[in-house]
Write a structure and sequence with these properties.
Elements lengths: L2 H17 L5 H14 L4 H7 L10 H13 L3 H9 L2 H6 L7 H11 L4 H9 L11 H18 L2 E2 H18 L4 E4 L1 H4 L4 E2 L2 E6 L3 H9 L4 E7 L3 E6 L4 E7 L4 H9 L2 H13 L2 E4 L2 E4 L5 E3 L3 H7 L15 H6 L14 E5 L10 H10 L4 E7 L11 H17 L4 E9 L10 H4 L4 E5 L8 H12 L4 E4 L17 H11 L2 E5 L9 H10 L3 E4 L11 H10 L13 H9 L1
Parallel strand pairs: 4-7, 11-12, 12-13, 13-14, 14-15, 15-16, 16-17
Antiparallel strand pairs: 1-3, 2-4, 5-6, 6-7, 8-9, 9-10
The structure holds 2'-deoxyguanosine-5'-triphosphate and calcium ion (2 copies).
Length: 570
């Protein structure tokens, strides 16, 4: 470990302490970091002869931490601090120009908790109106985000999708097109997107390219050709548009939807049948005659297949299932009768229970579950028993006034280190249902985390396990636990596994949904919305469920209210 690396760890500690609002300590860590950085001798050598406490600014506590870093290469204290704060908030500070103070202000004043929300706020010009900010700083924030995105390379589905849909709608209208679609991983609704692909079918490609380039958010046209254009949008996103002849649209759409492995499989099937398949169509090998190309389903049909939804096209058995006529009838948005995971103003949400109830009603839901955080989660303003009871009263009151939608009173309750839940049983009993959640001590061993989850399952009030793996897309991997055992136990105990639809989570993932279904555990989709607009994240939850082969019978939200009651009370 070099001195600069050790200093960087201490500076990170200082940032996090500052973010938490701790006084004095951050400066102590900064001062120690600065002095260590400026030392001529490497600490590794220095400590063999001298006492670390002889370094200016390094007292007993910091010396111990430096020793731990030198011995182990990391610092447990830093890991613990990281666990206490929303992962997204740490990522805000990776944007150049955003330090802990700014991050905290963005959090407090605009309720921004992650890069996605920061980008949305900057794009809709909310940042420039903050005191001490302006057009310039807003612009720099956007540039900083674009930089970070280029570094990781992949965009989140929930971020890319609305951008692509708006652009698609614009091109469709401006060029008066019938045939236009998202393509690639975005059409397959994959959780992260490498680039945005659009495909149009038109015999007047010039008009389509003009419409594309004229979109208000286009910053620069990077490439413009007869069949393909590439633009960069103001927020840094890059979009490809391909235009093919109308008669070739189906073949091109099939090809550019992918995925690649799915396509390779289809090509080999075509080959076995004496045909060849490419982006222009399906042709007979002997005389090059066109077999199919106008419509996607024609291509599949001529290969002896039933067309399947794009979400399944990952070469995970969908081709075999299609041959045998065993494709699942996937869950759809129309099947969804409610949302199980919504935060209100009482904890860290932005809307009142009443606003949430009306928003759910407008969505045509039969029910919506209010699930604020429990008492131990201080950073998210978790509710004491007293405040929780107050919230229950408010919710009951609203139910009397708002009809046509049932407000379920739940809570997102911390699963403590020993697997206990964060409210006493008699309080849990008063709730309609309980979502148990792990938000702390992610670094337990696999055995410990498995026991922790199983212990939580043994509480009779536990209904749903929130974001079961704890992963945060592009930020934090899942914690360790025995997935088979836990999913199996969920099935046996009648506990649902959440598919958290929050764009940064999508947890369960598609593959985890497949596993849950295999083991017979039911899935409950919850948006984890912290504002009314985030109720729309249901789309990404349903998409992920579809990628996980889930059918309405596998998903708790597809049950009408009348059938829900028994399950929630277990
Ligand atoms: P991404 O952008 O990394 O999230 O993933 P995709 O699936 O969107 O991949 P992309 O953008 O490279 O290409 C779009 C589609 O074009 C892809 O899903 C399938 C098709 N494709 C691309 N390259 C090949 C290839 O080498 N062979 C075949 N058969 N299809 C390809
Ligand atoms: Ca792509
Ligand atoms: Ca592409």
């Amino acid at each position: 470990m070099r001195n600069s690396e050790i200093a960087a760890i201490l500076e990170e500690v200082a940032d996090l302490l500052e973010l938490k609002g701790v006084a004095f300590k951050p400066n102590a860590y900064r001062k120690a970091a600065r002095n260590i950085r400026e030392m001529k001798q490497e600490l590794e050598t220095y400590r063999k002869k001298e006492d670390l406490r002889a370094i200016p600014g390094v007292g007993e506590a910091i010396a111990k931490k430096v020793e731990e870093i030198l011995d182990t290469g990391s610092l447990r204290y830093l890991d613990e601090l990281k666990e206490e704060l929303p992962a997204g908030l740490l990522q805000l500070m990776e944007v150049p120009d955003i330090g802990p103070k700014t991050a905290m202000r963005l959090y407090k004043e605009l309720r921004i908790t992650n890069l996605h929300e920061l980008k949305a706020a900057a794009t809709s010009h909310q940042i420039r109106d903050l005191k001490g900010f302006g057009d310039k700083s807003e612009e720099r924030v956007l540039q900083g985000i674009a930089l970070l995105e280029r570094r990781s390379g992949r965009m989140l589905l929930g971020y890319a999708y609305p951008i692509a849909e708006r652009l698609r709608t614009h091109v469709q209208g401006a060029a008066r097109l019938k045939l236009i679609s998202l393509g690639g991983s975005l059409r397959r609704m994959k959780e992260t997107i490498g680039d945005i692909d659009l495909l149009a079918g038109s015999d007047d490609a010039g008009r389509v390219m003009d419409a594309f380039a004229s979109y208000q958010d286009v910053e620069e046209v990077l490439e413009r050709g007869p069949t393909k254009s590439v633009v960069r949008l103001k927020d840094g996103t890059q979009v490809d548009l391909r235009v093919v002849k109308e008669v070739e649209y189906g073949a091109a759409l099939q090809y550019f939807t992918g995925n690649k492995e799915h396509n390779v499989e289809l090509r080999s099937m075509a080959n076995d049948k004496g045909m060849k398949l490419n982006e222009y169509g399906l042709f007979r090998k002997d005389n090059n005659q066109v077999v199919a190309r106008e419509r996607e389903e024609d291509i599949y049909r001529e290969l002896g297949l039933r067309i399947m939804p794009p979400e399944l096209r990952e070469n995970r058995g969908e081709i075999q299932a299609s041959i045998k006529g065993l494709l699942p009838k996937l869950v759809e948005m129309e099947d969804v009768k409610g949302d199980f995971h919504v935060h209100s103003l009482a904890s860290d949400g932005a809307a009142t229970i009443e606003e949430i109830a009306y928003a759910a009603k407008r969505k045509g839901y039969e029910y919506v579950g209010i699930t604020d955080h429990s008492q131990s989660l201080g950073v998210a303003n978790g509710l004491s028993v007293e405040r929780l009871r107050g919230n229950m009263d408010i919710a009951r009151n609203i139910m009397e006034r708002v009809d046509g939608v049932k407000v379920l009173i739940g809570a997102e309750v911390e699963i403590l280190e020993d697997g206990g839940l964060d409210y006493p049983d008699k309080v849990l009993k008063e709730l309609d249902y309980v979502i148990g959640a792990v938000h702390s001590k992610f670094k337990m061993s696999e055995a410990e985390m498995t026991n922790r989850l199983l212990a939580a399952f043994s509480n009779e009030h536990m209904t749903i396990l929130a974001h079961p793996t704890g992963r945060v897309l592009e930020q934090r991997g899942p914690y360790l636990f025995d997935k088979e055992r836990v999913f199996q136990a969920a099935k046996e105990g009648g506990i649902c596994l959440e598919l958290n639809a929050y764009v940064e989570r999508l947890d369960l993932s598609d593959l985890d949904c497949i596993k849950a279904k295999e083991l017979g555990a039911r899935v409950a989709i919850g948006t984890d919305a912290h504002s009314l607009s985030q109720l729309d994240y249901m789309l990404y939850g349903v998409a992920t469920a579809r990628r996980g082969w889930l059918e309405p019978k596998d998903v708790l939200n597809c049950l009408p209210l009348s059938e829900l009651v028994d399950i929630l009370s277990r």
